[in-house]
Each structure stands twice: as C-alpha cells, then as structure tokens.
Design brief:
The protein is α+β, with helices and mostly antiparallel strands and 115 residues long. It has a single domain (16-114), classed as YggU-like (Conserved Hypothetical Protein Mth637, Chain: A), CATH 3.30.1200. It is 26% helix and 23% strand. The chain is built from 3 helices and 5 strands. The chain has helices at 55-68, 96-102, 106-114; strands at residues 20-27, 34-37, 43-46, 75-79, 85-90. A hairpin with a 5-residue loop joins strand 2 (34-37) and strand 3 (43-46). The longest helix is centred in the middle third of the chain and has 14 residues, at 55-68.
Length: 115
C-alpha cells in the first residue's frame, strides 16, 4: 500500500502577521528616557518631553523606532493621544514576548514573577 501526501502551497502574501498592541503608561518631563515593567507587569516609559503639541507622543514613537530598528511608520499610537495611558501598535513585531525580548525586558518578567 502506498501513502500519498498532499502538500498545499500557501502564497507568501497570504500569510499576514498580526501586529502587536500594547498598553503603555507614560511619564513625561523626566530627566532621561527609560522603559520598564512595574510590579503588576505593566509597561511604563519615561520621556524627557512635556505633553505639549504632541512632543511626548513623537518622542515615544522615535524611542521605539530606534530600539526596534524599524521605520517610524510601523509604530502608531491608536488611542490615548492626550492621556498618560496609551495603546500603541507595532506592525513589525509578531508577538508581545518578542517585543519584550527586543526591548530587553524579557528577563525582568522572570524576576518579577519569581519574587
């Protein structure tokens, strides 16, 4: 008896990675830019700009684009333009775990969970 395998071909353009959306807590007017996870595993960013005329929002996008080495157009604020709590979408990252790894925060999660 002969076994027949059927292999389906999927066009590469049909495989669309889902963008990652994160909630971010923003602290403006700080001495330097930092990003960290707090004890509730919530992502927090400190920026030097003040929340005037979108300066802090622009600094957040620039900060992530520089760290992730991706075009600024692939990172967008989808809600919270005038709030300290923002939702940001990353079109170049395929999972939250990968995003935290690229930001260097994956080890911090393990430490916070263990304590």
């Amino acid at each position: 008896m002969q076994t027949i395998f059927i292999i389906e071909r999927v066009h590469p353009l049909l495989i669309i990675p889902m963008p990652v959306v994160i909630t971010l807590y923003v602290k403006t007017g700080r001495f330097k830019q930092t990003i960290m996870l707090n004890s509730q595993l919530k992502l927090s960013i400190s920026v030097t700009s003040h929340p005037e005329k979108g300066k802090a929002n622009k600094e957040i996008i620039d900060f992530f684009a520089k760290i992730l080495v991706c075009p600024k157009q692939k990172i967008s604020i989808v809600s919270g333009y005038t709030s300290k709590i923002k939702k940001i979408i990353f079109e170049t990252v395929d999972s939250q775990a990968r995003l935290l790894q690229l930001l260097g925060l994956d080890n911090q999660i393990t430490l916070l969970k263990d304590s």
